[in-house]
Amino acid sequence: MINFTVGPVQSSNAVRAIGAEQVPYFRTAEFSDLMLENEQLLKKFANATEDSKAVFMTCSGSGGMETAIMNCLTKDDKALVINGGSFGERFVELLTLHEIPFTEIKLEHGKALKLEHLAPYEGKGYTAFLLQKHETSTGVHYDINLVSDFCKRNGCFMIVDTISTFLCDPFDMAALDAGVMITGSQKALACPPGIALMILAPSALSRIEKTKCCCQYLDLKLALKNQERGQTPWTPAVGVLRQINVRLKEIDAMGGAEAEIKRTAGLASYFRNKLKEYNLPFEIISESLSNAVTPLHPTTQSAYEIFLKIKDEYGMWICPNGGDMKDTVFRVGHIGCLTEVDYDKLIDAFLDLREKKFI
Length: 359
Ligand SMILES: *Cc1c(COP(=O)(O)O)cnc(C)c1O
Prior knowledge:
There is one protein chain. This protein is of the alpha/beta class. It is 42% helix and 17% strand. The protein folds into two domains: 13-253, 3-Layer(aba) Sandwich (Aspartate Aminotransferase, domain 2); 256-355, Aspartate Aminotransferase, domain 1. It has helices spanning 13-19, 29-46, 61-72, 86-97, 115-118, 144-154, 173-176, 202-210, 220-227, 238-253, 256-277, 303-314, 340-355; strands at 2-3, 53-58, 79-83, 102-106, 128-132, 134-135, 140-141, 157-161, 180-184, 195-200, 282-284, 293-298, 316-317, 319-320, 330-333. Residues 7, 60-62, 87, 132, 136, 161, 163-164, 184, 187 line the site of pyridoxal-5'-phosphate.
């Protein structure tokens, strides 16, 4: 199978080799060193300030989103949240569950974020802002500079879900003055799922200090205290953390975040150019694309039927959409260990389906 989804994605051979090894005992100086190296490399790739801290939570990316809300926000906050798809919707559900007062900025699927969407909330006493930098469900890459400027003007604390854009599109945590960034092990880090990686700026650290977290397992005070010595309060996904270490060093050796972003951008434009060259019956639905994924609306056949056909008859996974986008949108990812040759195979499959009048 070739995997063109948005996670889990294909891992490099070095990352896979670690997966075949025995999982070591972890309350050791060796594992602590590895964890501190993970922290340092993650901060480097996100351009976080020196006094920021990183933590590694054993949960998927959604667990990282909930952790951020439970540890950094209280009922005294007044939050703004962008909801342009299913991950924005998840933030809305979490804010509702944890009873954080908020206003939702609802965007039509596929639409870019504009200054006019933020203007009504200027000077209205908002204290926090939550958004996906890239709404993976619709493939819309938001203009985060607009949000960052709004937050600076209005004194808002910014929580950014970069889960599907980290290492795919430029992200400068210090310049944006973001309080929290969240990513996951199974997206562009191309490791198995199981770890949410978070960077906490000093503005987040002081919020965490003052906030009571009503979940022991996700309490960032405990995670931060332990990470000081490269440890975690509970048994983490040790194997995945070792794979993350190999992967971060691999990226570092290949030129860091910038080189990885360039590689991903190259694959994305290779695929998008082929779509145009062969005039395939798919429309790109996003006004503002990330390098991570191409969201497509097939004009002649159900998106889900195309997903099934490609899976069952051509041995490849493209990424189906759920909910009301099930039949109208599928996505092709550009993250993980993929090459141009893989995209040639996918394009050949699409051409074959057109030949057979399936699309
Ligand atoms: C994948 C993803 C998540 C987290 O999903 P999990 O399944 O919990 O790992 C959150 N936000 C975005 C934008 C994502 O792409």
